Amino acid sequence: MTSTATTSLARRLGTGDAVVIGLSSMIGAGVFSAFGPAARAAGGGLLIGLALAGGVAYCNAVASAQLAAQYPTSGGTYVYGRERLGDWWGFVAGWGFVIGKTASCAAMALTFASYAVAGPMWADRLVGVAAVVALTAANYRGISRTVDVARLLVAVSILALVVVVLAIATSPRADTTRIGLSSVGTYGVLQAAGLLFFAFAGYARIATLGEEVRDPSRTIPRAVPMTLAIALGLYLVVGLAALSGAGPAALAASSRPLATAARAADAAWALPVVRIGAAVASLGSLLALIAGIGRTTLAMARNRDLPRWLASVHPRYQVPDHAELAVSIAVVLLVATTDLRNAIGFSSFGVLLYYAIANASAYTQRASERRWPRVLNVAGLAGCVVLVGALPWTAVVAGSGVLLAGLVGRAVARRLRPAGCSG
User: Fold this and answer.
1) In degrees rounded to 5, what are phi and psi of residue 313?
2) Which of 13, 28, 235, 334 has the highest Cβ tally under 10 A?
3) pLDDT of residue 6
4) Rounded to an integer, what distance in angstroms lies between the CA atom of residue 120 and that of residue 391?
5) What confidence tens digit (pLDDT) does each residue in 172-228 have?
6) What is the pLDDT, as a whole number, of residue 358?
7) Is this prediction's pTM over 0.85?
8) Any bridge partners for residue 3, and if so which?
9) Which pLDDT does position 209 carry in this prediction?
10) What is the DSSP string of 13-63?
11) CATH number of 15-408
């Protein structure tokens, strides 16, 4: 029999482990695919969008790190919103995270399959489902095993990106004049920033694992900004290389922009590296995403914002077993039935909403609880709101509809709850 909400998760993660989890969450399908839609939105201005996304991500990161140090428990902004702003705000953050990241998991699985198989859709779906099942099993065996696998995956991913960048940089056909900013519009840059934010959204994953971190008041504030700085530097180098290799027009027309850049720069020998790197990076992100969503689901179930059955913690492996199984089932269904290549906008909607609440929560902290100035919280909140507004309107409408459905569902459940039942 599995234990319930009173069982705590084991603290096994140090700073290095936290950085690995964050990097494996970010360096996935985003860096291998997001430059394409960003180039369609802003052309060469995608680099400005990337810097904007990184700036908003930094504000969000320090808010999350500051809050996680004060509330070192599973759930991330779901917990912070409840503690600082009230139950409903916490629910909005948690619901936005769960729905956005569930869609992201499916997108990661399909991206992995498209690079690993590149076959008919049914084959891609089958391989994607197999990846979800395998990585759910890895998570189910415990967070230490998750870190071990993530460390290997992120090392391979970074190595692949370095090889591709060097291949383009040393090619005589690479041309830095292709990095142009002519006819760059403000809306296009903002939309590119919103889409590229998808590639940053794993930087604070460690905050959702706060209950499993050793010395969280020291580890989390160090690990989150460190993870973001490494990823931002890597993304800027990759973006410069991609634009130099192919130019914004070619990137905009490609679903595999790094492969297109390598081919255009006459570095076709690097294409297998791109393919392997993209597949491995997608697996790394999927692995960490399943862990993060499972723990946020656990926290919401503990507070009866989701069915109480999801609050189980496995007595041997000390993981939220029911929550991870439920998430994996939802992802498998999406992979098997839905084309999620347009899910980046929907995912960004949910995650930006999540971090808007994180910034608002951090703003309320007292001076003794702060590590960074309030102006960063204001900038982060404003940035999240602006980037949400700049997303494709279909993503905004779909995200708003699912968010409203969750709010209505919670209101109905609270009315039907027996008198005297807390949470």
Assistant:
1) -120, 130
2) 28
3) 45
4) 30
5) 888 877 776 666 788 999 999 999 998 887 766 666 565 666 776 677 777 877 888
6) 95
7) no
8) 313
9) 61
10) B-HHHHHHHHHHHHSSHHHHHTHHHHHHHHGGGHHHHHHHHHHHHHHHHHH
11) 1.20.1740.10
Q: Report which residue type is found at 347.
A: S
Structure tokens belonging to residue 75: 């759930």
Ranges of residues in the chain with a pLDDT under 70 are 1-12, 25, 74-75, 118, 141-150, 180-183, 203-213, 216-217, 317-318, 340-341, 418-423
- List, as one string, the DSSP characters of 384-401: HHHHHHHS-HHHHHHHHH
C-alpha 320/C-alpha 318 separation (Å) is 7
Closest CA to 157 of 280, 21, 260: 280
- Intra-chain end-to-end CA distance of the chain, in Å: 24
Each domain of the chain, given as residue ranges in start order, spans 15-408
CA atoms of 46 and 73, how far apart (whole Å) = 36
- Tell me the C-alpha distance between 72 and 236, whole Å: 32
Spatial separation of the C-alpha atoms in residues 275 and 268, rounded to whole Å: 11
